[in-house]
Amino acid sequence: MVLRDDPTLMFTNAGMNQFKEYFLGDATPKHSRVTDTQKCLRVSGKHNDLEEVGKDTYHHTMFEMLGNWSFGDPGDASKGYFKKEAIQWAWELLTDVFKIDSASLYVSVFEGSTDADQLDMDQEAYDLWKKIVPEDRIIMGNKKDNFWEMGDQGPCGPCSEIHVDIRSDAEKAKTPGKDLVNMDHPQVVEIWNLVFMQFNRKANGSLEKLPAKHVDTGMGFERLCMVLQGVQSNYDTDVFKPYIREIETITKSTYGKNEETDIAIRVVADHVRAVAFSIADGQLPSNTGAGYVIRRILRRAIRYGFTFLNTQEPFIFKLVETMSQEMGEAFPELKAQKHLIQNVIKEEEQSFLRTLDQGLILLENVISSAKGKEISGKKAFELYDTYGFPIDLTALILSERGLTLNEAEFNSALAEQKNRSRAASETSTEDWTILVDDNEQEFVGYDTLQTPVKITRYRKVTSKKEGDLFQLIFNITPFYGESGGQTGDKGYLEGASGDVVYIIDTKKENNLTVHLTKNLPKKLDQTFSAIVDEKQRKRSASNHTATHLLHQALRKILGTHVEQKGSMVRSASLRFDFSNFSKVTDEELQQVEDFVNARIEEQLQKEERRAIPYNQAIKDGAIALFGEKYGDAVRTIKFGKSMELCGGTHVQNTGEIWHFKITSESAVAAGIRRIQAITGDAAKEYFQKESEQFEEIKSLLKNPKDTIKAVEDLQSENSHLKKQIEELLKDKAANIKGELKSELSDKNGVQFLAKEVDLDAAAIKDVAFQLGGEVENLFLVLGSKKDGKAILSCYISKNLVNEKNLNAGQIVRELGKYIQGGGGGQPFFATAGGKNPAGLQEALDKAETYIN
Ligand code: ATP
Ligand code: MG
């Protein structure tokens, strides 16, 4: 469903996407006749059904398109098929095999066009249909509905749609189905489209006949189910019912009683499928591009749940279980990645619910303080910009309230902000000064770190952030430009007369290696020695090779579900992000470290192949990275059993890495973990520091023979002392308890004492409860002070609470005023804390008034 290497499309939106190269003639299909089912997502670009979904009962975001295909073979016409077979077979499948009543079916045929294309009506299709369908069921369709084009250029042709009328007989008698075809009626819908590709649209806009004709058909699986199961809505089929039932249970709502609730339930039931499949295909919700499309689908579901199903907690993630049960057999990736999908959805729900909560309150304020029916676009922008409250939701909520949004104002606020951020990152770039007319730049950095070069051109770039920098291009370079997660080389240029300029960074721009310097050499037109900082390069190479070994180790130890999701190779350290649903345990990290270090000890020699065909590399077992674009010819780097497609720099032998040490493991997003590690010199420094620390600890312990035993002794001594202190404190409390008991005085039959003691709150409570167990009719108020604070506790025997209507909670609240504090508790025991120890005595003096 997620497309990776099609710059024109983020998601598969029709069955033909996967076969595009066959139609364009860029590749030869293995089979000329194919049937398939294809997950499609129609939420952006040319096909965008998102706003319909939930509101109607037959459009989904994600749906399964069933298709049959013929890839015409111009050399052998007998292999493929065309209109005659496609039409006959479609009819046979629907009426003979599926037993759909032929009287409920209508078909459409292209009527021709009078525009520049001057296309004839599709007489061939009409004549074929006429043989099987009465003529009054054949509808003539215009170019918009019945002429299909892949894009501005390429294969295209007329199509024939099949519509089905599933209304009751009574309704059919009232309005003929023919009048409702293509009229957005929920029970008169298109189920199958047969496309006949017979033309090629050329770059100049003209059409030419294709030598090889193709058939491309698409039938919506969910709509077919609706017809075959005799229900009136896709959501009443067994494809969707399990979700609806689950949503009803979780949200305590009922489907089929109220239109708003129903829409919300349909939205959630639909959207979870789209989001889950997208995550399974590797496209997680994010802030940009395809990830943002997915985030918006999920947010639409969350917001419908929040508003119409009263969900305050994440719940959509729970439907992933249902989905895995329902579809997991046909789509094993759902089962395999269930936890990742659940975690990602849950986390998105949590964060968006927080945003919604906040945003809705703010929007409510905006609405209530609005003067007329129109809401200020500036306010809406503030909500969007500062709080992440999506503008389409604001617009939706306003329209539900009969209010409108000043969109022009919003758009200008948005444009202003874009201008501001553009200005902040503005750089002024001078034109290139050409010294040598040579556009070919050779990279020799895999084999050498030093080479004579000539500067072919340069220019000055000025930015607020970095000041003036010069970009230099050489005819040949040993410098590696930042790419593939590896940072660029540093180094210097040395001219004949000792003229040196430092290269502070190297970048890659449109396949060109650009060297950055702060100054220009005094004499530009000469041969320089270009020298890469060897130490820095060696460290980067060591970290890059270690990254490959780490990748291999993770897949071996955690499983092949581990996929690289990001990587950063610097000279100082490496960072590797990968999919894994739980924290990597300490034992697993140890195993990973051991695995990599074992490969280092084996001193594996680098096996490098340059410019081999991509398919060959993959066939040989090289790992290609998700989201990375590769040319036809690729480079493979192999160390033992680790083989990756890679353009980076590596050590010759893993022994050069010396040692691999993981320094941290953490979460980047739900289901994505990050490992940071060091190698070589950095690892040496790390162990050096550790050992210095150990020496320091030893000397603090007075250099014992056995350091560990010395620490253990210290620990046991410490716990022994702790126990002693506890005992002493207990004794002290017992003594105080005895004293207090002897000081009790009888006031009207109540044993009373109010006194300051030297105990903490817990000890006071302890003493009070012990006394309460020993003395009847006790009324005790104890106070203490420490570090500028005072506490006051009151204990009252339970019988007194009832008989004398005394309440400890109320008493400490009232007495608490003297110590400028507050508190509470239960009627028989309560405590107050305050910040005025000076008032403690007065509070204690007042205690007696309660029993007088
Ligand atoms: P409609 O006019 O109903 O939106 P369409 O013309 O967009 O349909 P096609 O692009 O021809 O449909 O797709 C072929 C088939 O795919 C349709 O006949 C229908 O059965 C199914 N289909 C299309 N869009 C959706 C959708 N959003 N949800 C479910 N099924 C769909
Ligand atoms: Mg459509």
Automatic annotation (TrEMBL):
The lineage of its organism: Bacteria, Pseudomonadati, Bacteroidota, Flavobacteriia, Flavobacteriales. Zn(2+) binds at H544, H548, C646, H650. The gene is alaS. It is found in: Cytoplasm. Catalyzes the attachment of alanine to tRNA(Ala) in a two-step reaction: alanine is first activated by ATP to form Ala-AMP and then transferred to the acceptor end of tRNA(Ala). Also edits incorrectly charged Ser-tRNA(Ala) and Gly-tRNA(Ala) via its editing domain. Keywords: Aminoacyl-tRNA synthetase, ATP-binding, Cytoplasm, Ligase, Metal-binding, Nucleotide-binding, Protein biosynthesis, RNA-binding, tRNA-binding, Zinc. Belongs to the class-II aminoacyl-tRNA synthetase family. HAMAP family: Ala_tRNA_synth_B. Residues 1-689 form the Alanyl-transfer RNA synthetases family profile domain. Its EC number is 6.1.1.7. Signal peptide: none annotated. Consists of three domains; the N-terminal catalytic domain, the editing domain and the C-terminal C-Ala domain. The editing domain removes incorrectly charged amino acids, while the C-Ala domain, along with tRNA(Ala), serves as a bridge to cooperatively bring together the editing and aminoacylation centers thus stimulating deacylation of misacylated tRNAs. InterPro entries: aa-tRNA-synth_II/BPL/LPL, Ala-tRNA-lgiase_IIc, Ala-tRNA-ligase_IIc_anticod-bd, Ala-tRNA-synth_IIc_core, Ala-tRNA-synth_IIc_N, Ala-tRNA_ligase, Ala_tRNA_ligase_euk/bac, DHHA1_dom. This is Alanine--tRNA ligase. Binds 1 zinc ion per subunit. GO terms for molecular function: ligase activity. It comes from Gangjinia marincola. It catalyses: tRNA(Ala) + L-alanine + ATP = L-alanyl-tRNA(Ala) + AMP + diphosphate. It is an enzyme of class 6 (ligase). Its cofactor is Zn(2+).
